[in-house]
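pinned: reference chain
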Amino acid sequence: LCSCINNKCQAVYNEKFDSAVIDIKKKIIDNPDDPRYYFLLGSTYYWKTLFNYDDNITNENMFLESFDKCIELTSQKVTVEPNNPWLHFIIGASYGYKGLFYRSKEETFSAVKFGSKAIAHLHKIGETDPALLIDSYYGLGIYNYYAGNAGFFIRLLLPVFFETADPDKGLRLLKISSEKGTLTNTEAQFMLANI
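pinned: its structure tokens
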């Protein structure tokens, strides 16, 4: 998994998305029930879609299918290991990517819905894994910043249907993730630069 993550990151950061997809799909063939590879595949398609490469409809469909499969497989594992912080991180990050996807489509309600599902899982990480908790600040920061800056109607719905959000807290969490995160620091830096 580590070599696959390193290869994926190098390929994505150098905009060699097809190379990353090929590498990850080979791993999925060997590990069809491992949700982590579907997560890597989905995140690669997210970045590929974000930068408008090739056929975006195909990329978007692959993005959604990969994360749906990841969430399905990880949810099965959570029933057996409900206190495993990594499982909650993977599910939370998967929902978070879906939230970011719908945000890019300007579908704010769907973005907040998936973002809220993400942070519900990220909050379950708690203090069991301090390093992973720092990395979870990326997702928590994004949700707080964007949901907290959503339109009035969405902000009105937050305390009733979703997790509440504070944009200032979001910026603080993103800054911590960008400086101290081990998995999310680069993406947090990218997000802060966009903000």
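why pinned: The mean pLDDT is 85. The two ends are 32 Å apart (CA to CA).
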